[in-house]
What does this fold into?
Amino acid sequence: MGVVSDTHGLFDPKLVELFRGTDLIIHGGDVCGEAVLRQLEAVAPVRAIHGNCDVPPLSEHLPPWRLEQLAGHRILVLHDLGKPERPRPAAQYLLSTARPSIVISGHSHQGRIAIHGEVLYVNPGGAGPKRFKLLRSAARLTLGPEGVEARLFSLESTPPTVVARTRFGKRATLAAPER
It folds into this structure.
């Protein structure tokens, strides 16, 4: 599965290569343009949410959050989590009611893979225009009945290169993210 967020109207052609062969792309909000969704849909089906920068009509067609059940994993997708160790109140409410095993978020433009409690948190970072000195990035998740492999990729290299990786789940060897 491809994971992207904070495109802010920019479709990076490197996403085609990065997400080739995936069966689904999750967009964590701040899409800022139907064209971005169409270009992603040319690669794989897309399930997106709206972020704080998305405006009508796009924000009227995308939910503010979603709960996906994929390969035996409950995946909560929301735009503004805060931090895994200190979620914002609205995010904390969703976490406590949805009880996901994986949380995908965006908003901060800072790519991060973290395990907190028994939940894998993935923020793919910002794939849109460069913001400050933050690394432009996106992620891939490989979901299986025995666990998940999460990889964060730099979009500032050609081809995109892994900058963080972890395994999470029943038989996974939990490894600290590379960074």
The two ends are 22 Å apart (CA to CA). The CA atoms of residues 94 and 140 lie 23 Å apart.
